[in-house]
């Protein structure tokens, strides 16, 4: 520990800030050195440095020091995928920063300080679409409704095509509030906002592609359960369905819950899916459909009537409707419901 601990001067040089700034962050926000040897000045440990890097990144992007410190105090250390200071995380001034004291949380919020939860699990905005233009700066901004500062920061970074900032923010948010919270409160509002902009302008395809690619990379980096644990859940897109990002989120959320999965990916023909089920014998199969055109109930009927039928056959995604499902199929309508249902099917609860 002593060999790794740094003086205030050394920390200031590494972060590119003044020593007086470090003193202010220590006195006002509690981000000070934690290593102490009697008779010597306190020194900064690597864990202290990780928090200070977050503080530096956020304040460099215009986030108030009080809000930035609240984030920095709550992230785990060492940081996942930690990168050098100077990379922006939010890229947006957070609202309602208040005084120099640490900000409070919105009632019932599980997100970062000042987080304003206004989205249900489907990504709808609770009547906030009319206010989105003014809250997000209008013009070239991606509207995210009543979503909080992390979603607005993700939208700004996406518009800048700033992949390092996108990755930083997603990794920090997953570490702070898990895959489900990140997907519902941060990722979905931005994806919905991009989709709405595309419908009216036919623009932002490049933004959506970069954001989706980064989301895929970050979700894939979520730690998976040990390989010795049997894989009981098979995830697949419907025949001709090309959208897989929600399935990737489900796989990562299940991994957090200790449930290993097999993810087959996009456009899986019924014959191929039947072969995979026969060879792996899963307890649960989830078939994702984004669009009604790929939600053919015959795909589910084939699984339900096969001699290798899993215990749970589930449909997920907005392409499916409950009335069209064959008897015995289950409709998963939200990410939390899917994680709970599949965890039970896999024998985790």
Please summarize what this structure is.
The protein contains 12 helices and 5 strands. The protein is α/β, with parallel strands linked by helices and 349 residues long.
Report on the structure:
- This protein is α/β, with parallel strands linked by helices.
- The protein folds into three domains: 1-82 and 94-99, Orthogonal Bundle (Multidrug-efflux Transporter Regulator, Chain: A, Domain 2), CATH 1.10.1660; 105-222, Methyltransferase, Methionine Synthase (B12-binding Domains), Chain A, domain 1; 233-345, 3-Layer(aba) Sandwich (Rossmann fold).
- The protein contains twelve helices and five strands.
- It has helices at residues 8-15, 19-29, 46-60, 65-74, 129-135, 149-159, 163-201, 205-220, 245-256, 270-280, 297-305, 335-345; strands at 233-237, 261-263, 284-288, 312-316, 330-332.
- The chain has a five-stranded parallel β-sheet with strand order 2-1-3-4-5, with helices on both faces.
- Helix 11 (297-305) links the parallel strand 3 and strand 4.
- The longest helix is centred in the middle third of the chain and has 39 residues, at 163-201.
- The radius of gyration is 23 Å and the shape is elongated.
- The chain starts with 7 loop residues before the first helix and ends with a helix.
- 43% of the residues are buried.
- The model is unreliable at 79-138 (pLDDT under 50).
By helix and strand content, what is the structural category? alpha/beta
Backbone shape? elongated
What number is the mean pLDDT?
A: 80
* CATH homologous superfamily identity of the largest domain: Methionine synthase domain
| Helix-strand sequence | HHHHHHHHEHEHEHEEH
Strand content: 5-15%
Distance between the termini: 40 Å
At CATH's second level, what is the architecture of the largest domain?
Answer: Orthogonal Bundle
Instruction: Using the CA coordinates, give the radius of gyration.
Output: 23 Å
Largest sheet: 5 strands, parallel
Number of helices: 12
Considering DSSP H and I runs of 4 or more, what fraction of the residues is helical? 40-55%
CATH fold annotation of the largest domain: Methyltransferase, Methionine Synthase (B12-binding Domains), Chain A, domain 1
The low-pLDDT segments are 79-138
The spatial strand order of the largest sheet comes to: 2-1-3-4-5
């Amino acid at each position: 520990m002593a060999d790794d601990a740094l003086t205030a001067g050394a920390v200031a040089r590494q972060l590119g800030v003044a020593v007086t700034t470090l003193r202010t962050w220590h006195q006002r926000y509690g981000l000070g050195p934690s290593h102490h040897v009697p008779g010597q000045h306190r020194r900064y440990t690597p864990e202290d440095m990780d928090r200070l890097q977050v503080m530096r990144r956020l304040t460099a992007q215009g986030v108030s020091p009080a809000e930035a410190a609240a984030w920095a105090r709550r992230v785990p250390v060492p940081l996942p995928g930690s990168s050098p200071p100077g990379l922006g995380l939010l890229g947006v001034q957070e609202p309602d920063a208040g005084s120099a004291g640490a900000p409070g949380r919105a009632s019932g919020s599980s997100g970062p300080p000042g987080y304003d939860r206004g989205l249900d699990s489907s990504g709808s905005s609770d009547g906030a679409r009319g206010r989105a233009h003014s809250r997000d700066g209008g013009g070239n901004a991606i509207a995210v409704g009543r979503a909080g500062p992390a979603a607005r920061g993700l939208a700004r970074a996406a518009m800048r095509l700033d992949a390092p900032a996108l990755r930083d923010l997603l990794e920090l948010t997953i570490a702070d509030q898990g895959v489900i919270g990140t997907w519902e409160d941060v990722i979905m509002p931005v994806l919905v906002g991009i989709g709405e902009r595309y419908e009216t302008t036919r623009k932002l395809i490049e933004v959506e592609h970069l954001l989706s690619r980064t989301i895929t990379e970050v979700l894939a980096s979520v730690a998976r359960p040990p390989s010795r644990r049997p894989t009981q859940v098979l995830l697949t897109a419907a025949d001709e369905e090309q959208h897989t990002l929600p399935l990737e989120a489900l796989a990562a959320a299940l991994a957090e819950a200790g449930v290993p999965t097999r993810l087959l990916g996009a456009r899986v023909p019924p014959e191929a899916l039947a072969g995979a089920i026969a060879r792996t014998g899963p307890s649960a199969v989830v078939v994702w459909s984004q669009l009604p055109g790929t939600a053919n109930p015959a795909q589910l009927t084939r699984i339900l009537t096969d001699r290798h039928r899993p215990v749970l056959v589930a449909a997920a995604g907005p392409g499916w409707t409950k009335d069209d499902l064959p008897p015995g199929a289950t409709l998963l309508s939200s990410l939390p419901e899917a994680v709970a249902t599949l965890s039970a099917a896999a024998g985790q609860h």
